[in-house]
Design brief:
Helices cover 46% and strands 0% of the residues. By secondary structure, it is mainly α. The model has no long low-confidence stretch (mean pLDDT 84). The protein is elongated and about 70 Å long.
Length: 142
């Protein structure tokens, strides 16, 4: 290699440094990313690579990271109240009814197919002591 003695690696060459992921304050860099209006993983990587934000390029490998939508606060589905209004207007009663409805109809893109995975924590918050199942609450209410 011609520059073997001078070569220090790609980090020095590109100016991109990789941080130690163990001491990262995920909430702090998340706040900065949201304030900067970063909406995608690609925008995140560009901001880090151009030193607009002092954070790890691969933040998805940092302990506590769950997903890009949550990290960048980009919500692609309706909120829980809007979901309840929509699902209760359908006249369904069970998860099986929901699956059949999704097969027979074009589900809006802002409503997930897997309602329980996406809205279970909202259900628990809205209905902490009830014996009503998730699906009964979603489609019928209390």
């Amino acid at each position: 290699m011609f520059y073997k003695k001078e070569w220090s690696g790609w980090n020095e060459f590109t100016g991109v440094t990789h941080k130690n992921n163990r001491n990262i304050d995920l909430q702090q860099i998340q706040k900065i990313a949201i304030e900067m209006g970063i909406k995608t993983r690609e925008e995140w990587r560009m901001a880090v690579a151009t030193n607009q934000i002092d954070a790890p390029l691969y933040v998805s490998k940092v302990q506590g990271f769950s997903n890009w939508s949550q990290f960048l606060n980009v919500e692609r589905y309706v909120d829980f109240d809007a979901l309840l209004k929509f699902t209760r207007s359908l006249g369904l009663k069970t998860q099986t009814d929901w699956r059949q409805w999704c097969r027979d109809n074009e589900r809006p893109s802002n409503i997930p197919f897997d309602l329980q995975t996406h809205y279970n924590s909202d259900y628990i918050s809205a209905n902490p002591n009830s014996k009503l199942s998730f699906w009964r609450f979603i489609f019928v209410g209390s």
